[in-house]
Design a protein that fits this description.
- The longest helix has 50 residues.
- Helix 1 runs parallel beside helix 3 and helix 10 packs across helix 11.
- Strands 1-2-4-3 form a four-stranded antiparallel beta sheet.
- The protein is of the alpha+beta class and 323 residues long.
């Protein structure tokens, strides 16, 4: 089972005790993956389609507990590209029952016409904080997905219209997370790619078990990344030190071959001999070998002076050869 499926399975088992929260969650589910059928005789039916058994179970439970009715559930296989996947359909056939649901979800106007709201829920259904949580949960159950957090952080909910996406983005924003919207073909995707904000969103939807799992994964990833950064930084420092030491040895040998070492002041001559004898030693180690000991900055100053003398000698030689 994928991480996304595990989250949905956990959320599907949480049924709000308050009726207003159940209505908000139903509004999201029906708005995202449901439709209202009207017969020639002006009779209503509600259909909800989903590929996830947990979502079908949750929707059936919400209908039962909120309206004390039982929808007819059917399952059929969707075939395409050589594969088959189950499609779960919850169907409320009874006209009076369908009217009760539509009225409760603010989808039926006083004249009996279906309200053509561009958003998946009337704002009256999501005024309370608990109802907004339920609505976001229902939206994710119906049209959401999450990537495997061991590979990447990505949370998204697919919306059929920009208005639905904007409403969902605004509802998520009331809790803090900054969701973005991107268009993908004919759909509008509300998404979050930042690990900490996805953790917050799981808490908002009350997926506490998944939240703990994700936090553990984040901790392991952050520790591993921190170790890798430190190792890379240390390796870079070692390479830098080795390269610098190699250049220093080369300059000192050049001075020696030119007979200049004997002409150097005692301090420079001493550090030159130490560097030749200990090409792998650090500046600190070289300084501790001197009597009296010298700090890293003092050692570095002397070695830079040696390199400067070697460079001046090379330049003078090139000028002489040119003349």
């Amino acid at each position: 089972m994928s991480f996304s499926s595990e989250v949905k399975d956990e959320l599907s088992r949480q049924v709000p005790t308050a009726r207003h929260c159940r209505l908000a969650e139903l509004a999201a589910i029906i708005g995202m993956c449901g439709d209202v059928c009207i017969s020639a005789a002006e009779r209503f039916r509600i259909r909800i389609h989903t590929e996830n058994a947990a979502v079908a179970r949750k929707c059936f439970t919400l209908l039962q507990k909120t309206f004390n009715i039982n929808g007819d559930v059917s399952v059929h296989l969707h075939k395409g590209n050589g594969t088959s996947s189950p499609i779960y359909t919850i169907l409320v056939k009874d006209h009076e029952m369908a009217v009760r649901i539509l009225q409760a979800l603010k989808l039926l106007q006083s004249d009996g016409e279906i309200a053509e709201h561009v958003s998946p829920a009337n704002q009256l259904l999501v005024q309370k904080s608990c109802c907004r949580r339920a609505f976001i949960r229902g939206a994710f159950l119906s049209a959401g997905s999450m990537s495997n957090p061991r590979k990447s952080y990505h949370f998204e909910i697919v919306c059929a219209s920009p208005e639905r996406a904007l409403q969902l983005q605004a509802l998520i924003g009331t809790f803090g997370p900054d969701a973005k919207i991107v268009r993908r073909k004919k759909y509008h995707i509300v998404y979050i790619k930042e690990g900490a904000q996805i953790v917050d969103l799981l808490n908002i939807m009350e997926a506490h078990r998944a939240l703990i799992d994700l936090e553990n994964i984040r901790i392991v990833r952050e520790v591993r990344n921190d170790v890798n950064r430190k190792v890379n930084c240390e390796a870079a420092n070692i390479n830098k030190t080795v390269s610098a030491a190699a250049r220093q040895v080369e300059d000192i040998r050049y001075l020696k071959s030119a007979g200049e070492l004997e002409q150097l002041p005692e301090g420079l001559a001493e550090i030159a001999q130490l560097r030749l004898a200990h090409p792998d030693a650090s500046l600190k180690e070289l300084g501790e070998m001197l009597m009296p000991p010298v700090g890293k900055s003092g050692v570095n100053h002397r070695l830079r002076k040696l390199s400067q003398l070697a460079e001046e000698l090379r330049e003078n030689k090139e000028e002489y050869n040119y003349d």
